[in-house]
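Before surveying the methods themselves, it helps to consider a single example record, giving the amino acid sequence and backbone structure tokens:
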Amino acid sequence: MVERCPVALDTTGKDIHAEADRLRAAGPATLVELPGGVEAWSINSHAVIRDLLTDPRVTKSARNHWPAFINGEIPPDWEMISWVAMDNMVTAYGKEHVRLRKLVGKAFTRRRTEAIRPRVVELTGQLLDALAATPPGEVVDLRERFAYPLPALIVADLIGMSQEALAKTAKVIEMMIDTTVSPEQAAEILGGWRQAMAELIASKRATPGEDITTDLIAAREEDGSRLSEDELTDTIFAILGAGSETTINFFDNAITALLTHPEQLELVKNGGATWDDVIDEVLRVQSPLAQLPLRYAVEDIELDGVTIPKGDPILINYSAVGRDPALHGDTAADFDITRADKEHLSFGHGPHFCLGAGIARMVAEIGLSTLFERYPELSLAVTPGELQPLPTFIMNGHRTLPVRLTAQVPAGAGAH
């Protein structure tokens, strides 16, 4: 048994990649300390992560497999309580996970993905039109003005949430991913998002619509079972949070990567590479989700001389997967859309693979291609080193993305 001497994770997330490299070098599983003094096993190598994501001895259900949570040792105001207190397909195990995923999967059809394409094109155009009023040379925060609103409003449309309700919920989501919050703020977050989702569900029961919330309210299994009220509330919030925050960070990272590698941007513009190449390389080298709390060992798990004891929490580092030199060699940390192997696990792997991956890729392709068509001379307004990371080890993005638009091509002039 490895001596329990945890490494304290940097809650400010100032250099998640360097931290992952250090943890990976320490072994297949490294004991770390989370906020509140909670210990977990950090996994940072591609091979081990890929295996554990499909290992039936690993669960995401705290209520079934984390003794400290079950016994009340994890307080209700623990800084990360929102991530483990959910009751939905993300935190379900075994047959319950299969049941919930089948119910939720009914709402993520290919037809729905294609049906929202015109709305994505429309909203992208509206956001870029609004940027056109920026005075020449003025600095614009493209995270706030484009990377954030595009995916957030699309996901709000999908679940049938008004822009007013989204604005109120956005602050809760921002606090939830912040790993520097206080216990008091953590308790406020949990109550805040549950109240917001309850209001949304009540409105959809009163006035059903063509949206995922309405579909989930109505969804039934073959045996007649439905989502419980808690499952419904927590599932809709998971869709909102996962669908918006990850795509916001994707846009942030993709725009940054292309502006700091102009030769690769030019390659895409000239047809030497595709937007799919860009999407997969960004997801590989800058996974928008850094680490997703938490998984748990259903029984003792042996990993090359390291034992993760039954019931211990496990923290999977998605941002470390594509940067593992064992998978991508000495250039693993380099952004290169021409590399043949862009393997990543940014949409997950195995039974928890992201149901919304198709929608996310569609929004990413339309958003990026249209942005660079409309603003071909877009440039960073600061040096890359001046970009400040989000204060979290859960998400991977920047606090702001200051750019200069320079000139624009009128809407419709480019060949989208």
The chain has a mean pLDDT of 90. The longest strand covers residues 291-297.
